[in-house]
Design brief:
The chain is of the alpha+beta class. It has helices at residues 38-47, 134-153, 184-188, and strands at residues 9-18, 23-32, 61-70, 78-80, 98-106, 114-120, 127-128, 131-132, 158-162, 167-176, 181-182. It has one domain (9-188). The protein starts with 8 loop residues before the first strand and ends with a helix.
Length: 192
C-alpha cells in the first residue's frame, strides 16, 4: 500500500535493536516537518529525549536507525540515528513480545484520531503478570508529555496521521497503560 499524501507531515520509522536478544522492533511516529527539514527534525528528536521516556526498556536496547519520509508524495527518505533514545532500566532478561503501550490522544475522538507507540523489550524485573507499576506508567507518560511539548517548541509538533483519511491532528497528550501490550512479530524473530 503506498503512503498517503499529507502535506507538511514527515513519517519517522524508528528502528530499535536489542543486543541481548539480537532482535529488532520498529515504531512509526509522525511530526510536522516540511521536506528538507529532516536534519532539524532528527536533531529535535534526539535533543528532546526525556530521562524517563524509555523507562522499563532494557538498557541493551537503542535506536539504530530512523527513516524519515516526507508525506508529500514525491520526496525521498532520509536516514539518521539517535544517541539519546536508549532503554533506561538496566540489564536483565527481556520479554520480547511484551511492550509498554504509549497512547497518543488528539482533540478529536475516534480510531483515526488516536495512535499508539509500542516501546519494545521491557526487562522482566519491571513486569508483574503482564503489568508494570502504575507509578512507572505515570513517570513514562509524564516524560512523553514533556517530549511532546519540547517538540512543539521546536516547531515539530507530534501528530497522529490517518492514512485512511489522509490527514493529521496534533497530539494533545500522551498516556501509558499499566497493562503491557503484545507484539507477536517481535517474539517470532527468535525463531530464526
Amino acid at each position: 500500500m503506498p503512503l498517503p499524501v499529507i502535506a507538511g507531515v514527515t513519517r519517522c520509522a524508528v528502528k530499535w535493536h536489542n543486543t541481548t536478544g539480537d532482535i529488532d522492533a520498529i515504531n512509526v511516529m509522525h511530526f510536522y516537518a516540511a521536506p528538507g527539514d529532516e536534519a532539524d527534525l532528527l536533531a529535535s528528536l534526539d535533543a528532546n529525549a526525556q530521562p524517563h521516556q524509555f523507562e522499563g526498556m532494557s538498557s541493551a536496547t537503542s535506536v539504530i536507525e530512523v527513516v524519515m519520509t516526507p508525506l508529500d508524495g514525491s520526496s525521498s527518505s532520509a536516514t539518521g540515528t539517535l544517541e539519546n533514545w536508549v532503554g533506561s532500566s538496566g540489564a536483565g532478561d527481556i520479554v520480547p513480545a511484551q511492550c509498554i503501550v504509549v497512547s497518543a490522544h488528539t482533540a478529536l475522538r475516534g480510531r483515526s484520531n488516536s495512535g499508539r507507540t509500542y516501546l519494545p523489550f521491557p526487562v522482566e524485573s519491571i513486569t508483574d503478570a503482564g503489568t508494570i507499576d502504575i507509578a512507572n506508567a505515570n513517570e513514562i507518560a509524564a516524560a512523553w508529555n514533556d517530549f511532546g511539548a519540547a517538540m512543539v517548541t521546536d516547531g515539530h509538533d507530534p501528530v497522529v496521521a490517518s492514512y485512511k483519511n489522509e490527514d493529521a491532528h496534533v497530539i494533545t497528550r500522551y498516556s501509558v497503560s499499566y497493562v503491557l501490550g503484545t507484539q507477536r512479530r517481535r517474539q517470532d524473530q527468535l525463531r530464526h
